[in-house]
């Protein structure tokens, strides 16, 4: 990124051809073994011809939302670039990559807990849209809670506590928060029956609104949108909650028939359960937000 800014914004590198290479020179086998060591896994390595890797990459690109391997990566491995013979210019010292490929950097770059799932396949992946071509089933509820807006929205973000109010949330697998944004993955429950796990993103507008959006949804769900809006009033905080499930045109009418009336009753009941829980506990009660291990 620093090199791109220097070249495109600051115009520091006119007419130069630079090699953007890290400080660590390592063979692919050794790199794979080092990653396995950091992950605490023991794996047997089998050498395969380059044609096999190209075939695997084509299949991954055609079937996965984020391919396990891409053809461009295979091409880079095939070239085995070590010496930058076609990049004769020296990289300025302040722009040269300095992060080594070691256990610490690998550990920092590992993905979150959990392995591959059906939601990683295109056929099951969430189609992120606003309901075009699908069926949207929504529930809405409002109430006044005698707590500050911050207490209300932070209660919702403490998902393991919030399950007491939202009975549609199953087991919380993990949660990652970075300031006012983040991701949460949890199981589901519909009319008390287990439902597939979902991954939602959230964005907090301190402290007036909290938005959720479906990121990984298994069939038959195509998406999810929901929000909590808070407005201060003389009686307390006026809380409005809306949640919408997006389904395909084939299963959507059946879902609406089976669960639409239930959702229209459950969402108002959910905010009333929020009110009872928050007003019954002393101010400042509750656990701090934490990361949930899967």
Which characteristics define this entry?
294 residues, alpha+beta, Alpha-D-Glucose-1,6-Bisphosphate, Chain A, domain 4, 2 domains, 7-stranded antiparallel β-sheet, 8 helices
Average pLDDT rating: 81
Oligomer: single chain
The CATH architecture name of the largest domain reads 2-Layer Sandwich
Question: Given this structure, which CATH class of the largest domain is correct?
Answer: Alpha Beta
Your description of this structure?
31% of the residues lie in helices and 26% in strands. It is α+β, with helices and mostly antiparallel strands. The chain folds into two domains: 2-120, no CATH class; 135-280, START domain (Alpha-D-Glucose-1,6-Bisphosphate, Chain A, domain 4, 2-Layer Sandwich). The protein has a seven-stranded antiparallel β-sheet. The longest helix has 29 residues, at 252-280. The radius of gyration is 25 Å and the shape is elongated. The two termini are 32 Å apart.
In short, what is this structure?
By secondary structure, the chain is an alpha+beta fold. Helix content is 31%, strand content 26%.
Question: Which helices and strands, and how do they pair?
Answer:
Blueprint: H1 2-8, H2 28-39, H3 50-63, H4 71-79, H5 103-109, E1 135-145, H6 149-157, H7 159-162, E2 169-178, E3 181-190, E4 193-205, E5 209-216, E6 221-233, E7 236-247, H8 252-280
Antiparallel strand pairs: 1-7, 2-3, 3-4, 4-5, 5-6, 6-7
Helix pairs in contact: 3-4
